[in-house]
Amino acid sequence: MNLLLQTPLALGRRVLRRESPLAGRTVLVTGASSGIGEATAYAVAERGARVLLVARRAEEPDRVRARIGEAAWTYPCDLTDGDAVDALVKEVLAEHGAVDYLVNNAGRSIRRSLALSYDRFHDVERSMAINFLGPVRLTLGLLPAMREQRFGHVVNIVTWGVQVKAPKFSAYIASKSALDAWSRIAGRETFFENVTFTNMRFSLVQTPMTAPTEAYAGRGATAEQAAAKVVRALEDRPITVGTLAGSFGEVINVVAPRASDALLATLDRVFADSAAARDGRGSTDRAADRH
Ligand SMILES: NC(=O)c1ccc[n+]([C@@H]2O[C@H](COP(=O)([O-])OP(=O)(O)OC[C@H]3O[C@@H](n4cnc5c(N)ncnc54)[C@H](OP(=O)(O)O)[C@@H]3O)[C@@H](O)[C@H]2O)c1
């Protein structure tokens, strides 16, 4: 079917039948142990999908699976470990066949200025490992079966930062931008096999990742609201989902790049590094990995 017609047709069918295209499908969600990923797992299960829950921790996905019931399976995996990702792909394909929908949600955010980063190249490496290399390796593993069955959709949880390019997030935003660009190009190569990609450029969402930052208290969407948007993206398969502010940032970066630099440089001075970023707390300390 012509892909250009697909989204309106899918929408029309859903309105008429009131049935989710996720019903009976296999959906793999990474980072399903908390925040947006956990809320997404519940939301897709409610629509009748079979949900595969991936995260490093084992006990948290077990809790999520217990709440969902028989339609959920857990796969503990560190997505920064290439061999572990390859083993995950093999296991999932053997046990479930092709994955119909993949949500590349697992990730980490680091907010730290350049001035505090000269001896912290590992911030760049670990951002790329979880936000770019891990999801790309997983997607590459699952794509052949999607192409073979001529159906598949991949949703990447990226950030509005890819449009705005906010100071202090260079490592984080660069890694998310790489995934955003990779997927856009991949989607062009899989276009005629009905395998599609959505980049979701979220702004602030209240999750364990953002909780330690006092300045974010009471702001942003809830994880459930974010999950509802992920479900809509899975069902309707748009190319991007974003915010008005993100689109505004993108346009200003193109039409007035110097003015945009001046504005963001001013904001950079106003909003200092957090205490955790200054302390250089380690990778296991979530307070150091703020949005
Ligand atoms: N919250 C926001 O404001 C916001 C805005 C824009 C985009 N995002 C993006 O949304 C996604 C979800 O974040 P969240 O806010 O829901 O934060 P979160 O609650 O901290 O969730 C992050 C998830 O990623 C998993 N994860 C981290 N490293 C992993 C690894 N090496 N291997 C496998 N799983 C790993 C974590 O599980 P384990 O610790 O069990 O492995 C956890 O389930 C991230 O990609 C984030 O960048 C968030």
Structure in words:
This protein is α/β, with parallel strands linked by helices. The protein has one domain: NAD(P)-binding Rossmann-like Domain (Rossmann fold, 3-Layer(aba) Sandwich), CATH 3.40.50. It has eleven helices and nine strands. Strand 4, helix 5 and strand 5 (152-159) form a beta-alpha-beta unit. Helix 2 (35-46) packs parallel to helix 3 (59-68) and helix 5 packs parallel to helix 7. The N and C termini lie far apart (40 Å). NADP nicotinamide-adenine-dinucleotide phosphate is lined by residues 30-31, 33-37, 55-57, 60, 78-80, 105-109, 130, 157, 159, 202, 204-205, 207-210, 220, 291.
Topology (elements, then pairings):
Blueprint: H1 3-17, E1 26-30, H2 35-46, E2 50-55, H3 59-68, E3 72-76, H4 82-96, E4 101-104, H5 121-149, E5 152-159, H6 161-164, H7 170-189, E6 195-202, E7 205-206, E8 221-222, H8 223-236, E9 240-241, H9 244-255, H10 257-270, H11 275-279
Parallel strand pairs: 1-2, 1-4, 2-3, 4-5, 5-6, 6-9, 7-8
Helix pairs in contact: 2-3, 2-8, 4-5, 5-7, 9-10
Bound molecules: NADP nicotinamide-adenine-dinucleotide phosphate.
NADP nicotinamide-adenine-dinucleotide phosphate (NAP) binds next to helix 2 and strand 5.
